[in-house]
Structures are given as structure tokens and as C-alpha cells.
Amino acid sequence: MKRPVWIFRETVLSLHEQLLAAFGGFEVAMMVGLMLVAASKRHLIMVDGMAACAALLVASRIAAPVTDYCVFCRSNGHQGLDTAIGLFQASALLELGMESTDGTGATLAWPLIKSAAALLTEVAEGEEPGPTRPADLPALGDDARRSGPGTLT
Fold first, then answer.
1. How many C-beta atoms lie closer than 10 Å to residue 47's C-beta?
2. With 70 as the cut, is the pLDDT of residue 123 above it?
3. Domain tally for the chain?
4. How many CA atoms lie within 13 A of 35 on its CB side?
5. Containing structural domain, residue 94
6. Which of 54, 83, 84, 105 has its CA 20 to 30 A from that of 60?
7. What is the DSSP string of 77-107?
8. What is the pLDDT of residues 30-68, one digit of tens each?
9. C-beta of residue 31 within 8 angstroms of C-beta of residue 52
10. Which segments within 15-69 are labelled E, that is strand?
């Protein structure tokens, strides 16, 4: 009996993709698709948890550059998550040590990522990139010079 070979955009699916189709479940398959589309549009992908790492592993087998758009966030200290993140030769942006598995790491990392993006955008769009200097102080009148700081006139 011949094994079925599935075709995806004229490419024969590997064993990894066939296993995903057979055992991964709808949610993981949807995450793989979302990760591939997000990376193709150069969007940030926040990876938090085992299911997201499993989906990223499959997505990276389909298109390796998908990992270039990933930020790893973690809210728990699961040993399997250490191994999963290690597969991508990455480290987590946040390591909270909480025992939650509901995307808390990504939720708490979002303000940090948003602030970093705003900082980079402001520097890139500023008149002169680099350190800024304080604005010039207005010239002080004769009365202000005589009185000096901390004196009453």
C-alpha cells in the first residue's frame, strides 16, 4: 500500500508537515499558517508557550526565515520550553517564573516591545539621529543676574 503524499503549492510535504496534518490539531495548524503569513508581511511574531513553539518549529521547516521575526516570551519555567526555545538558538525576552500557561508572557512583554519600537521610530524620524542637546536657555535680564538663584529681589 502506498502512503499518501500531500502536495502544498507544488511542494511535497515532508514528514513534519504530514505529522502536523495528522496529529497537530486545528489550532496548531492555524498558528503555523498565521506565522508564515505574518513573516511574509514582515510582522512581529510573539512566541509564548509550548504550542506556539511547536507551531514555529513546523513553520520554520516550511520557511526558515520565519524565525527572524520572532520574539520569545515565557511566563513559566517548564523544562520542555527551555528545550524548545533552545532549538531556535534563542533566549526569552522575559522570564517571569510564573505558573501560568495562558499567554501571560506575551501580554506582559508587549509594552516593552511597543516602547522599543517607538524609541527606534523616533530616533529614525528625528531631525538629527543621535544624542540630543538641551534647548538653549533664554537670555537672562540684568535683574535676574544680580539676584542669582535662591535670592529674593
1. 26
2. no
3. 1
4. 31
5. 11-116
6. 105
7. --HHHHHHHHHTT---S-B------SSHHHH
8. 899 999 999 999 999 999 888 888 899 888 888 889 999
9. yes
10. 45-47
